[in-house]
Structures are given as structure tokens and as C-alpha cells.
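Predict the 3D structure for this chain.
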Amino acid sequence: MRVPVRLVPLTAVTAASALLTGCFSSTGADGADGGEGKRIRVAHMLPPRSGLSPLSDDAFKLSRWSTAETLVKLNPEGDAKPALATEWKRSGKRWTFTIREGVTFHDGTKLTGDAVVNSLTRAATASPKPRILDGVELTAKADGDTVTVTTAVEDPLVPQRLSSPQLSILAAKAYRGKTVNPVGAGTGPFELTKVDGTSSAALDRYDDYWGDKAKAPGIDVTFVPDGTARAAALRTGEADIVEAIPVSQAAVLDPDLITEVPMPRTNTLYLNTEKGVFKDASLRAAAREAVDAESIVKGVYEGRADVAEGLLGPALPWAAELRSAVKRTKAGDPSGRSITIATFTDRAELPEVAATLQQQLQKAGFKVKLDVREYANIESDALAGAFDAFILSRATVLDSGDPAAYLYSDFASEGSFNIAQLADDKVDTALRKASDTAAGDARRKAVIEAETAVLGTDAAVPMLHERVIQGDAAGVVGAAHDPRERELVTTATYVK
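Done. Predicted structure below.
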């Protein structure tokens, strides 16, 4: 049963505001040194988990604050563009990068080839490795202003991998302890000057930045896990930029203050192709035809999601342009066949999605049971093919910004996350082609061909693409709204 959206009681708003009061105190003079506007107050959802080490998921915070930078950055299409490296060339397993001149770290030391090698080597030899290097053997060697990166096997995505915030380049001082400490060690337009555990952080504009000078004098960050408190911070003026506002809170905020950003994340119904009812392709087709994704978007997500046309959504704008019609199997008659749909409670919407799908599939003629648990208690059964169907909210691009790895993992015969238990020669061939094609238009075309092959099996029924809701106060100018969650405050961001 759906819980109706309700207004937050005044006492809750007052308590949340009190919680945040004082957290955003400025550590520098607002606009006193030639910048525009005031210091930017940011409320994040998740606190640091690994002391802001770039070798962890905390790296994305460093990137969103524009304090740590990488050799390469990605444009909206996922193509590699210059950053701390100005150009690169490939020769088999070797990629040679030319390092940008005139860059200094925040501690005053210069960016050199040796500094780049130091950062990349620490990442490549870390235990555990950064996620972007999972399964990748990489070495780096400096020669003057160039760095050669060599992989164990040919890898057409090395530049995209080096765009991951987990491979940020930091000054030597960051690596002197047992853990990596990014304070005062980046190259970005903002210098990280203070970290107060899991409660707050502060950054000041770095005036010797190699690129455009930041307009804001600094950033004051507070970590606020409670969604109601984050929404209240925006409503009461305690924060300028607020990430991940819950759907229920978005409904009671000024629409002009919130932006819905498409995420590269798809809510998909995976069907077990190896055994059980959905071994029959015609019954998979019957399930696909029974799914009414639009009603799920309107009911469960209150319209704050996008109905899926494929596995890849609007966060990858090129996908829709390349997509073509899929050859479909004719739907069979369920005839009261019994199926079990499983999902997990960790994402609040998924149990409700399961309940809605239960009704839709029962209407189509299936008998449907649900199995809903915490993710930690259900993943192994899902991967072992214990269910007829599984509902999963799945990220469709990994840290390289490329969807080929996700498609291979989920739908190749040897894929490590093949919940659908799919083993299809045509799909495997298409996935290998996508994985081996060089980055660019040809690879994107191959990726969509692989998506089409997967959809033709009805092993997966994509239902919707999720969005993240970001709050920007009325005076905020130039905040980034990035589907990959790599950018938030840039050199162009300021508060009037």
C-alpha cells in the first residue's frame, strides 16, 4: 500500500535547521579577494567512508569539489578529453601521455611525470585496488614530460579509465602515511584545507590554478545523511547546494529550487533463462508485454523517473539516437504458471515495484510469489539462479563512463553478474565486439548493437531510468548537474 506524501511537521523542520545551524560557518572572507559572491555551502548525503582517500568512492567527493584532478576528463558523450594530460597516443598495450606544463599542486610543488607515476603506481598496487582497476594490470613509467602507461592486455579504454576520480593525481605529500591524505595535495581550482572527520570539510579558492580562476572564494561542506534535514537546509537557507533530495521531500519544495538529473541507472526485471517458467522464450515475451512501466513511474516514483526504451537511458544521450527496432518473440499463454519474483529492501522503491509487478503479471495470467530481503541476504541466491525473476536497480556505466562492461557483466555467458543466466551465442558475439572496439562512434554503435541483441532475448525487461534530485538555492549560479556525479562545484559556480 502506498504511503501518501505529506508535509513535514514544523517541529521536524525546526529541528533539522537547528542541526545545521553553524555547520556552514564561513572560513574565509566572502568575495574579498576578487571573486564573485559568497562561499558555497554544500550539503552532501553520504559522509566520507575512507578519510577522503581517492582510492575509494570518496574520490567522487574530491572531484565534485574541484580539488583533485585526473589526467583525462570525459565529455557528455563519454569521450576522453585533455585535463592534466594534454594529449596521448597508443601503441598496442602502451599509451603515452604528455603532461601539462605549468601546473602546481596546492603545496607548491610542480606537477611532473614522476608525480603522475607515483599516484598511478600507488593506485595500481593498492589493496584493494580502486574499482576502476579491478582486473586490470597497469604500470606507469615517466620520461621527462611524458608518462607511458602499459597494460597486461590491449585495452582501448585506458584514457577513459584514467578519467576516474579514483585515479586523481596528488602531490607526493599525500602518500607519506598509511592512508592517502588529499588535504593540500590536489591541483584543482579549490584547495582542500580542512576535514572534520565525517561531519564537515572546507576548501579555499586556489589562486595559482592552471586554468580559469574559480568565481567563488571557497566551499563549506557538511555531511547530512538524513534526507528531511537536507531538504530543510535548502528550504530554510542553511545550504546553497543540496544533493540527493528524497522524492517525498521534493514534492514540498519550491520547484524552482530543484533539478532532476538523469542517472545512468536502470530499474530492470531480469528473467531466468536457464530453468523454470522463463526458460520458455514465449513466456518471457508474455512477461515483457505484461509490464506497464509507465504506471510504475507515475505511482512508485511520483513521475520522477523516465520510462525505459532500452537498457541505456537519457544519461547517455547518444543511445536513443542509435537505437533501432528489436525483433521480438511472440508472447505465449502463461496458463496460471507459478513464478517467484525477488528483490531487496535496501532501495526503498524496489519492494513497491515488486508489489506492482505482482499485480501486473497476475493480471496477465501468471501466479506470482514475492521474495523480498536485504541485499546482503539475497545476492548469492540471485546470482545462483534461485528465482524466476529478479528486480534490480543497476548502474549502467562504471567508472570509465562506458556501458560495455555492464552489458558484459550482466549478459555474457561468462558474465560475473549474469542474474538472467543468459547463454546466447549472438549476444556473446555482440558483447565481445563492443568490448574490443576503440572508443568513439564505432564503439557506441557496437554497444547499441549488443543492447539490441540482449533485448531480443527478453532476458531483461528494462522498466525505468532513475533520476537524482539536486537542490540549488535561488542565488546559486553555475552549479553542475552531472549524471556521472563527478562535477558539482566548478570554476563557474558562485552564490550571489
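The mean pLDDT is 91.
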